[in-house]
Write a structure and sequence with these properties.
2 domains; binds ligand PMT; about 400 residues; eight-stranded mixed β-sheet
C-alpha cells in the first residue's frame, strides 16, 4: 500500500501503553504517523516515547502557542488521511458522539474530514452501559468505524468485553479504511431524497424517497477521496462523514442548488426523486375544508417542473452525468427511453414495484443501462454496495478521458 498520513489519537485508559507498539506497526507498513494525546492519556503513556517511535513531535495542548505554531489543530485535522482513536475511552466516545471540543483531541476529531476508526477500551460494565451503546450507535450512523473491543481479562479485574484490540489488528483495520483515494481530486455532486411541492401551509405533493440511495452514493464518493456536495431533498438522514450538504425541499430549489454547484463538479449523480409537477397555486395559509361543501370535489392544477437532469446533461462537456430511473414496469425499455431523452452517460434503473428494493428500504436491485445498448443487471445489494458498483463503473468510464 502507498504510504498514507495517519493521526493517532490516544485517550486516557490503561490500554494507552500499547500506543507506541501501534505507532511502530503503522510505520513498519510505511505510513507517516503523528500522535495527539488527551491530558489523561499522558498519565499512561509518555509523549516522549511516542515522539521517539513516530519520529514526529507529539501534540497535547490546544492552547500551547509553541505547539500550535508548529502545526495548528486545524492543520493537523486537515493533514490526516485517517484518524485512529486508540484507546477510545467511554468518555471520549461520549464527547465524540455529542460534538464536544474541549481539548485538542476532541477539537481535531470534530474538525477533521478524514475517516475515523475507533478502538474502544474500558471496563465491561461501562461498555455495556446503555449510554455507551447509544453513543456508539450515534457514531456508527455517522460513518465512524470501530475495531473491538475484545473479550478477556480486563485491567480492572473484571472479565468480559472491553480489551482494546491488539495493535496488529488495529493496524490491519486501519489499512482496510485506507482504500486507494481513487477519486481524490474531482468534486462529485449527488442529489438525494424526494422533493415536496407545497399545496398550502401544511400539505404538499411528494413521494416516498427516503434519501438512502443518494446518501449511500455521497458516502461512497467521500470514502474514495472525492470532495462531495450532497443536495438533499426531504429526508431525516444524518450527513455522511466528509460530505458538504445543501438542504432543499422543492424541485425549483433543487435545480438552483444543482446549477450553483455544477460548474465545479466533475461527476454528477442524480439519485433524487424530483417531483415532475408542482401545484400552480399554493396558499401560504391552510386551506380549510369548511370552505367547501361536503362531497364537493377540488381540482389541483399542476405545472411541470424543469427537468434538471436533462438540463445539465445538455451542457455536461467532459463531466460524467448519471441519472436514476424509478420504473414500475418494462424497466429496461423505459430506462433506455429515459437515457436517450435526458442525454446522460448512464442510467441506473430500479424496479420500484419490488417491495425488497427501491424506495425506503436498505437494499436495491439495479440495472446499469448504457448508451451503447448494454444492460448490466446487479443482484439485490445493500445500497452502499450499489454505490460502490456504480463508482467502479464511473471510474472506468473516466479512465479513458
Ligand atoms: O431514496 P430511497 O428511498 O433510497 O429510494 C431510492 C430511489 C428509488 C428514489 C432511487 O433509487 C431512484 O430511483 N431515484 C430516481 C427517482 C426518479 O425520480 O426517477 P425518475 O424516473 O422520475 O427520474 C429520472 C431521473 O431524472 C432521475 O435521475 C431524477 O433525479 C431526474 N429528474 C427527474 C425529474 C426532474 N424534474 N428533474 C430531474 O432531474
Amino acid at each position: 500500500m502507498e504510504p498514507r498520513r495517519i493521526l493517532l489519537a490516544i485517550s486516557g485508559g490503561i490500554a494507552a501503553y500499547k500506543a507506541p507498539e501501534l505507532v511502530r506497526t503503522l510505520r513498519r507498513a510505511g505510513h507517516e504517523v503523528r500522535c495527539m494525546l488527551t491530558p489523561e492519556a499522558e498519565r499512561f503513556v509518555s509523549g516522549l516515547s511516542l515522539q521517539a517511535v513516530s519520529g514526529e513531535s507529539v501534540r497535547r495542548d490546544l492552547f500551547d502557542a509553541g505547539e500550535e505554531g508548529e502545526i495548528d489543530h486545524i492543520g493537523l485535522a486537515d493533514w490526516a488521511e485517517l484518524v485512529v482513536v486508540a484507546p477510545a475511552t467511554a468518555n471520549l466516545l461520549a464527547k465524540m458522539a455529542h460534538g464536544l471540543a474541549d481539548d485538542l483531541v476532541t477539537a481535531v476529531l470534530l474538525a477533521t474530514r478524514a475517516p475515523i476508526l475507533v478502538a474502544p477500551a474500558m471496563n465491561v460494565n461501562m461498555w455495556s452501559h446503555p449510554a455507551t451503546q447509544a453513543n456508539l450507535e450515534i457514531l456508527r450512523a455517522r460513518g465512524i468505524s470501530r475495531i473491538g473491543p475484545d473479550a478477556g481479562e480486563l485491567a480492572c479485574g473484571w472479565e468480559g468485553l472491553g480489551r482494546m484490540s491488539d495493535p496488529a489488528v488495529i493496524a490491519e483495520a486501519a489499512a482496510n479504511q485506507l482504500v486507494p483515494s481513487s477519486l481524490a481530486g474531482p468534486r462529485v455532486l449527488v442529489t438525494a431524497g424526494g422533493t415536496a411541492e407545497p399545496i398550502d401551509a401544511v400539505r404538499s405533493v411528494t413521494n416516498r424517497s427516503s434519501g438512502k440511495m443518494g446518501f449511500a452514493i455521497a458516502a461512497e464518493a467521500a470514502h474514495r477521496g472525492a470532495q462531495v456536495t450532497l443536495v438533499a431533498g426531504i429526508t431525516g438522514l444524518p450527513t455522511p462523514h466528509g460530505v458538504d450538504r445543501i438542504d432543499v425541499s422543492t424541485a425549483l430549489q433543487m435545480r438552483d442548488a444543482v446549477l450553483a454547484s455544477f460548474d465545479d463538479s466533475t461527476i454528477v449523480v442524480k439519485a433524487a426523486a424530483v417531483a415532475d409537477f408542482r401545484p400552480v397555486n399554493t396558499s401560504d395559509r391552510k386551506i380549510k375544508k369548511e370552505q367547501m361543501a361536503e362531497g364537493e370535489s377540488m381540482t389541483l392544477e399542476l405545472v411541470q417542473n424543469p427537468d434538471i437532469l436533462q438540463e445539465i446533461s445538455a451542457k455536461k462537456g467532459e463531466r460524467t452525468v448519471v441519472g436514476f430511473a424509478a420504473e414500475s414496469h418494462e424497466v429496461v425499455a423505459a430506462a433506455q427511453r429515459k437515457l436517450a431523452r435526458k442525454g446522460c452517460d448512464l442510467i441506473v434503473a430500479n424496479d420500484i414495484s419490488r417491495t425488497d428494493a427501491g424506495f425506503e428500504v436498505d437494499e436495491n436491485a439495479v440495472l446499469f443501462v448504457w448508451p451503447n445498448g448494454e444492460v448490466e443487471e446487479l443482484p439485490l445489494l445493500p445500497k452502499a454496495g450499489v454505490a460502490a458498483q456504480l463508482f467502479d463503473r464511473i471510474e472506468k468510464l473516466r479512465e479513458g478521458r
